[in-house]
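Encode chain A's predicted structure.
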Amino acid sequence: MNTAKIFSDQLDHCYAIMRLENNDHDFLVVASEEEGPCFAYDLNDNFKKISVWNDVGGTMTMIQIPGTLNFLATQKFYPGFNSKNCRIVKETFNGTDWDQSIVGDFPYVHRFDLIQHEQGLWFIGCSIANSKKNVDDWTDPGKVWVGDYNDESEEVDNLRDLDFTLTKNHGYKNMGNYSLITGVRGVYRVDYPTKESDWKLTQLVAVETSDIATADINGDGKDEYLTIEGFHGPYTRIYDSNFNTLYKSEPETPFGHAIWGGKIGSKQYFVFGYREGKQDLELINFEDNKINIQLVDNQVGPSNATVYEKDGIQYIFSANRESDEVAVYKISDSE
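Encoded structure for chain A:
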């Protein structure tokens, strides 16, 4: 695969990203994790920049409300991980930009999601801690919060925590019929409630895991898992579909962070990046029991990255936090 940077903009401590598409509208959205702005770039108008908000920031997660151009986002997840004032806001598209309302206070919630079902939308939120004396205090573990998101009242109803402790949550992955969450205790599968059963958590891996992504990178018809080991850790590991290890990296560089998996062209890849050390953005696949790593960009320090397609062409959208750069890379087949 060949990659080439086609767009760049500056945003201090850019972190959370999202593709926001509905009907004839199509945007890339990026927000700062500091007290900074959130921008939307119009993919139908040559990346025209629109301000979603100008300050507050502290955004870890943004989630589109299905069937709309509205979305929920965390704010005030600062300083660092001592984020007792974290809240969730709703951004409502008015035809030009977005109007903000406050959904509620969600202390220490790092990742959250909306799960669509026949009766509406479930809310699931993962907090990194329940309380903190300082940034490095992890003595009061976090929780998994669940409830029902009511878009009319713009509130989460029936909010409650599950009988589960979650320390240093960083990763979350919606798998369609279930979700994966990560933390000190490893990787857990979260099954959604049914008429017969409540929310259910099942441990899949007992190794401390920061983040997880899935893709069938060896072409065996089953998803493999790429994980970052340790909180913002220096190791990456690739598991097969049964969580047997196919590959584990050496601790060459710390602070693994950006992670994505899926189809690019005719094959599947992982996108991965470090925020310290090499600070590279990479494409990863796995053939003949050998890992292949291709450099996309170096010394940019990506926090989050994703792949999207527009008019039959694929692109990598990356928040290069350590270089304060919002970047888009065009992907083309090298063959």
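The two ends are 8 Å apart (CA to CA).
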